[in-house]
Amino acid sequence: MTTRRTILAAGAATAVATAAGVAAAAPAAAAATTPAQLLPADPFAHLLRRATFGPTPASLAEVRKLGVEGWLDRQFDASSIDDAACDKLVARLPLAGASVATVRSSIAKNSYDAFKQLGRAAVARAAWSNRQLFEVTAAFWANHLHIAAPSSQVWDSRSDYETQVIRKHAFGRFADMLKASMKHPAMLTYLDNRSSTKAHPNENYARELMELHTVGLVYSEQDVYAAANLLTGLTVDSTGAYVYEGARHVTGAVEILGFKHANATAAVGESASLAFADHLAKHPATAKRLATKLCQRFVADVAPESLVTRLAKIYLDNDTAIKPVLKALFTSPEFAAAVGQKSRTPFEDLIATIRTLGLGPEASGVKALDALYNGLVNAGNAPYRWSPPNGFPDVAAAWASPSGFLMRCNNHLNLAAGWYPSQLTRPTDLLKSLVPALPGTYGALVDALATRLIGAKLPAGHTAAVLSVAGKLPTSPLTASDKSLAGHAPYLIALVLDAPSFQLR
Fold first, then answer.
1. Within this chain, do residues 250 and 305 fall inside the same structural domain, yes or no?
2. In the predicted model, is pLDDT for residue 25 greater than 60?
3. Among 113, 121, 297, 449, which is most exposed with the fewest C-beta within 10 angstroms?
4. Residue pLDDT, tens place only, 138-147
5. How far does Cα 303 stand from its chain's mean position?
6. Domain with 407 in it
7. Average model confidence (pLDDT) for the chain?
8. Residues 303 and 355 in one domain
9. Residue 96 gets which letter from DSSP?
10. Do residues 225 and 321 share a domain?
11. What is the dihedral of CA 9, 10, 15, 16, to 10 degrees?
12. Range 26-31, long-range pairs (CB < 8 A, 24+ positions)
């Protein structure tokens, strides 16, 4: 007998199978056998599943009208896209992008209030910004040049880091972003360079600058030692601002990964450090590493080597500019062939659910954002809330677990039913907004819901599993006078979202 357990088991099996990079162990009732077969071969929907936080009817209509390249070009010109509604929502969180001075003058020392607002702003922008490609890209770079929030001692500077480093340079040049991070009090604090002195150089930032931010594990311990000496003097003053203090700087010639500098006096210490960052940003190992991470984020958990090689060359040929690399990625044959090869993280699943259901932010206040953020904390995937400096993992295996899948299912039902967070705005009749013309059978209703919410019908076995909750068969007749439909509708909607195909992006 096909039951609700069938579709739930299939969802968990697909997540595990995608994580392993093998065919899904779909149940006997399911027609599809691989993750790729669960999604439509629609290049426009595929693009939006990867280049946004989830397709909506409006975004699908736009990309079909503009074409892939036209849509990308419009999204790359983010400032030309009206985002007033989202900006108004984020304005309820004034500390989310505030300067160090503003945060210090607004809250008590070591307060978590700025962290809280920053995380909620990330949820708001992902769910409701019209500048979706920018937000997806900014999230990628924030995870690459990661500073945990909350984390010790950056209570006053983490919000400014998001504004002045990540969001300012997300569509610019990586070299500029890297140098901006090197001079930011949040990074210097998080990775301990603010305490590094001539007498006691701290190696933490030097190591992560190479290992995590740029070239990867191609350095020697001597390179770390030399880089730590070179970076002395980059610190933070008593007001919380970045400052270079020559008295802290270790002078003397350096040679690190092909970078050479006389570093003869303390006066050139800052410029030498920035030159080193520039060298690292333009290093072939950095180009390959960034290309690999971008492919893992947007294409497949196992990055296609052919695409990595091309993107690395484009990155170097364009002086570390980010837009040409992204455009080449999204228009590549490797990307087009990667349908079904990425799974959604808990954050992506929650946001995609909000977007596909057409839910909106509350009319005032931030209680709904509080609830959404706290739910992501419980899922282990709240924005920026990853303690180590390597950022959240971006492969399916890290997020595939029965408990995690059950949490997603609960979120789907809470959002479909309007139970939690209750403050979110929603269509007066959610089912009618999703399926305006009521079909003649329950099976056709699930088909229509799946096509609207996911982009394709579910396998026959999954449709039967969804309907088992309502005690219906695919052939069961459906009329507007069906008194049970209103009660069944939230469960049918949620179970369609529980399907394996919605877990993929």
1. no
2. no
3. 113
4. 999 999 999 9
5. 17
6. 4-41+343-362+395-503
7. 94
8. no
9. T
10. no
11. 70
12. 26/459, 26/500, 27/461, 28/461, 29/2, 29/459, 29/460, 29/461, 29/462, 29/464, 29/465, 30/6, 30/459, 30/460, 30/461, 30/462, 31/459, 31/460, 31/461
> Are 404 and 470 within one domain?
yes
Phi, psi values for residue 18, rounded to 5°: -65, -40
pLDDT (tens digit, 9 = 90+) per residue, 375-405? 999 999 999 999 999 999 999 999 999 999 9
Q: Is 64 a domain residue? A: no
Query: Who's near 241: CB < 8 A, 6+ residues apart?
Result: 100, 185
Q: Name the domain count of the chain.
A: 3
Q: How far apart are CA 161 and CA 118, in angstroms?
A: 11
269 within a domain of the structure (yes/no): yes
> CA-CA distance, 495 to 503, in Å (whole number)?
12
Q: In whole angstroms, how far apart are CA 27 and each of 14, 407, 473? A: 10, 21, 18
Helix (H, G, I), strand (E, B) or coil at 321: strand
The pLDDT tens digits of the residues spanning 234-259 come to 999 999 999 999 999 999 999 999 99
Mean pLDDT over 113-127 rounds to: 98
DSSP code string of 155-188: TTTHHHHIIIIIIHHTTSBHHHHHHHHHT-HHHH
Query: Do 255 and 350 share a domain, yes or no?
Result: no
Q: Is residue 185, in this structure, part of any structural domain at all?
A: yes
Distances from the Cα of 159 to the Cαs of 178, 359, 459, in angstroms?
Answer: 17, 27, 45
- pLDDT tens, 474-485? 999 999 999 999
| Shared-domain flag, residues 293 and 247 | no
User: Do residues 27 and 461 touch, judged by C-beta distance below 8 A?
Assistant: yes
290 found inside a domain: yes
> Do 180 and 141 meet the contact criterion of CB atoms below 8 Å apart?
no
Alpha carbons 216 and 219: distance in angstroms, whole number: 8
Residue 208 contacts residue 254 (beta carbons within 8 Å): no
pLDDT tens for 452-474 read 999 999 999 999 999 999 999 99
Q: Are residues 498 and 352 in the same domain?
A: yes
- On whether the CB atoms of residues 375 and 413 are closer than 8 A, the answer is no
pTM assigned to the model: 0.94
Phi and psi at residue 236, to the nearest 5°: -130, 135
- pLDDT-derived band of residue 418, with 50, 70 and 90 as boundaries? very high
Tokens representing 500 are: 């394996």
